[in-house]
Amino acid sequence: MLIAHPSPSVLGPALRLSLFACLAAALALGAGAAQAQTALRLATTTSTQNSGVLDDLLPRFESERGIKVHVIAVGTGKALELGAQGDVDMVMVHAPDLELDYVGKGAFIERTPVMFNEFVILGPPADPARVRESGNIAEAMRRIALGRAPFISRGDRSGTHIKEQELWKAAGIEPVGSWYQQVGQGMGATLRIAHERQSYTLSDDGTYFAFESGLELKILSRREPLLVNPYAVMLVNPARHPHVHARAARELVQWLASEHGQSLIGDYVKHGHRLFTPGLPPEMRTAR
Questions:
Q1: How far apart are CA 283 and CA 288, in angstroms?
Q2: Angle between helices 53-65 and 259-267 (to 10 degrees)
Q3: Contacts of range 139-147, beta carbons closer than 8 Å, 24 or more positions apart
Q4: For residue 284, pLDDT beyond 80
Q5: What does each C-alpha distance from 90 to 11, 36, 112, 114, 151 come to in angstroms?
Q6: What pLDDT is stored for residue 281 in this prediction?
Q7: Helices 53-65 and 246-257 sit at what angle, rounded to 10 degrees?
Q8: 56-60 CB contacts, 8 Å cutoff, 24+ apart
Q9: Of the candidates 1, 27, 78, 218, which lies 20 to 30 Å from 195 by C-alpha distance?
Q10: Environment class of 177 (CB within 10 Å of its CB; exposed 0-12, middle 13-18, buried 19+)
Q11: Cβ atoms 110, 89 nearer than 8 A
Q12: Torsion of CA 88, 158, 121, 125, to 10 degrees
């Protein structure tokens, strides 16, 4: 038996309107489901992850935008490699010169500074190298090296490791010898090792404050322009890697850079300390 389907021209206006409404609802539902299923891959630093700020921010973003974020916490160097290879959709890192080098090579687009804190020299309360008495960070590094005081280096091509190498260079020191130990670990693990061995180390202050209660380490040198620690987010270049979730990644960047996102970053406090300041460091604004 043949069944004749009426053409749209013979359907009543009310029925046509109902069919169009059902179609629109189905399309909207499908689009919403697709967005909810998006698993945005963010490669970031262990210092960012260890501070706990992403555990505070990302669930809010996921709830508001329906986009799930999968975090891969590694050193900055590794995060940039993952992005350059198209293995993630975006990165949040803190090594400006290296970031700009990758952008210049076309691996990333739309670099956006979102927050900053500072690097600090940590050491045992007794401070055998007398770092507290240093007039500046270069002198602090020289005191550690000349006194052969134990120093724990991340040694992992992270943003912190890159900054540490910059500080040794500023001090005119090539760190070699048994006093200088590279552990190849993330920030949290490095802090625990420095605590156990009662050694000096370099950390971002956000991770230190997050771990402070369990550490017998004190801040001995801080608050110099050379110790500013800016974080930026960058999108993996979709022209090179068409499979990346560029649209979802851009939504997260815009959310972090928005007034709402910046307010949440500034409001993040742990153990009585604000771990990050939103935006770009003042000393970098004129040079941008």
A1: 10
A2: 150
A3: 139/171, 140/220, 140/221, 141/167, 141/168, 141/170, 141/171, 141/173, 142/171, 142/172, 142/173, 144/200, 145/171, 145/173, 145/175, 145/179, 145/180
A4: no
A5: 50, 18, 11, 14, 33
A6: 84
A7: 120
A8: 56/264, 56/268, 57/256, 57/261, 57/264, 57/265, 57/268, 60/264
A9: 78
A10: exposed
A11: no
A12: 90
Q: E strands of the chain, at which residues?
A: 39-45, 68-74, 90-93, 108-123, 151-153, 180-182, 200-204, 218-221, 228-236, 269-270, 273-274, 277-278
Residue 6 confidence (pLDDT) above 80: no
Domains in the chain: ranges and CATH: 38-116+229-285 (3.40.190.10), 118-227 (3.40.190.10)
Q: Which has the higher per-residue pLDDT, 20 or 77?
A: 77
Q: Report pLDDT digits (tens) over 181-202.
A: 999 999 999 999 999 999 999 9
Other C-beta atoms lying within 10 Å of the C-beta of residue 31: 10
Neighbouring C-beta atoms of residue 217, cutoff 10 Å: 23
Summarised one tens digit per residue, pLDDT across range 41-85 is 999 999 899 999 999 999 999 999 999 999 999 999 999 999 999
Q: How confident is the model at residue 14 (pLDDT cuts 50, 70, 90)?
A: very low
The number of residues in the chain equals 288
Q: How confident is the model at residue 213 (pLDDT cuts 50, 70, 90)?
A: very high
Q: Which residue has the higher pLDDT, 66 or 281?
A: 66
pTM higher than 0.85, yes or no? no
